[in-house]
Design a protein that fits this description.
The chain is an alpha+beta fold and 404 residues long. It has two domains: 123 residues; 215 residues, MetI-like (MetI-like fold), CATH 1.10.3720. 51% of the residues lie in helices and 22% in strands. It is built from 14 helices and twelve strands. Strands 2, 3, 4, 5, 6, 7, 8, 9, 10 and 11 form a ten-stranded antiparallel β-sheet that branches. A two-stranded antiparallel sheet has the order 1-12. Helix 3 crosses helix 14 and helix 13 packs antiparallel against helix 14. The longest helix is centred in the N-terminal third of the chain and has 35 residues. The chain is elongated and about 120 Å long.
């Protein structure tokens, strides 16, 4: 018995572990998008990339007008925080051509070419011609060849500037702290007018969702309960429009918008999409599951078709309505190709979020943090809607009949 319980516990543990890993893999891109939207541009280009935003610390040092950046340097085996005084000191490594094992490191500025820059002397070493340099060694000038050259930074103790250390700046670790820059969102709004795009997108989405719910409810009820000649054939034809690819409709639909005069107007993003064969089919299938006896009893009591629809069918169809509203919201909110066709790029007043993000991608190409801040503005609302609406979607898929 104990071994059975242990086995079941291990199975559950493995299942939950696998689910948690997959959930983290799915969520990680969104987390990285959110955290990067709070970073500074230079922090987004760090390698290896980091999840949380960090800012390099600086310190006010007497004798310097601007704050100096802090870095970790190793002094006598200990790691200390020094300020960077100079970032590009060229250091050369020189060797005696007669004794290559003897080398010395000196700033390039302290070394002169032997014979001058125009007639610099050279010597052949190991079959290769090497230029000679006058290198000061213990008060004497020794002709040497240059083996290598690098650029180092000059670091100093902020409390005692006489304590200096030369160290490679690119390989040095800056002193940093966790930070956040919510002003990135304000900058995106000011740069691309995301507030206007957000209000336009919300308006278009709300009207499209409301329109599709209204037409789908009326059409679904008509095809499910009303009897009229050719009902089933008409429904099949209407349902068959789902199989028509959108690319086939772009040209005639755009010509229709030109004829009506709706090009470059928000009406072109709303009116053509308030009718949906999928929504009508979904509501019809759900209305069919409602027992006819309830409708007949309401008719006997003197209720009209509209009252039956409003008081019986719609309250009983909450899961289907929530499912349709969720799908319609996601489609209308994320619509890109049709707005790109019918709304001019220069008409910023009528831009929706997808168009603004497309323009922002070019204007802020050197600032990924701003692009991801704009993406967060566009992504978070549908994510929230989907999280709250998925319960109704599952209920719609598993339920049948009327809730008691």
């Amino acid at each position: 018995m104990k071994s059975y319980r242990l086995t079941e516990t291990l199975k559950k543990f493995l299942i939950y572990a696998v689910l948690i890993i997959f959930a983290f893999v799915m969520i990680f891109p969104f987390l990285y998008m959110l955290t990067t939207s709070f970073k500074l541009p230079k922090d987004t280009f760090r390698y290896p990339p980091r999840l949380l935003p960090r800012d390099a610390l600086t310190m006010e040092v007497e004798g310097f007008d601007d704050p100096l950046p802090l870095y970790y340097v190793t002094v006598d085996g200990r790691q200390e925080q020094f300020v960077l005084l100079e970032s590009n000191i060229r250091i050369g490594v020189y060797a005696d051509p007669n004794n290559p094992d003897v080398t010395i490191e000196l700033p390039v500025s302290e070394v002169e070419p032997r014979g001058g820059f125009t007639n610099q002397e050279a010597i052949t070493v190991a079959g290769e011609e090497q230029k000679l340099w006058d290198v000061p060694v213990n008060g004497e000038i020794v002709p040497m060849i240059q083996i290598s050259q690098t650029a180092l930074g000059r670091f100093a103790d902020p409390n005692d500037l006489s304590r200096e250390v030369l160290q490679n700046v690119r390989l040095s670790q800056p002193v940093e702290e966790l930070s956040a820059h919510p002003q990135n969102y304000n900058e995106v709004v000011d740069l691309q007018g995301m507030d206007r795009s957000l209000s336009n997108t919300a308006l278009v989405t709300i009207l499209v969702v409301t329109g599709q719910l209204t037409t789908s409810i009326l059409g679904g009820y008509a095809f499910a309960r009303l009897r009229f000649p050719g009902r089933d054939k008409l429904f099949v034809v209407y349902l068959g429009t789902i199989m028509i690819p959108f690319v086939v409709l772009i040209t005639p639909l755009y010509q229709l918008m030109v004829t009506i005069g709706w090009v470059d107007k928000l009406a072109a993003l709303i009116v053509p999409w308030i009718f949906t064969a999928y929504g009508t089919f979904l509501m019809r299938q759900f209305f069919i599951t409602i027992p006819k006896e309830i409708e007949e009893a309401a008719l006997i009591d003197g209720a009209s078709r509209l009252e039956i629809l409003l008081r019986i069918f719609i309250p009983a169809s909450t899961p289907a309505l929530a499912t349709l509203a969720t799908f319609t919201f996601l489609y209308a909110w994320n619509s890109f190709f049709w707005p790109l066709v019918v709304i001019n790029t220069g008409n910023v007043e009528n831009h929706v979020l997808t168009l603004s993000l497309n323009v922002l991608r070019g204007r802020a190409s050197d600032s990924p943090n701003l692009i991801l801040a704009g993406a967060a503005i566009a992504i978070l609302p549908p994510m929230i809607i989907f999280i709250f609406g998925q319960r109704f979607f599952v209920e719609s898929a598993t339920s049948s009949g009327v809730k008691g």
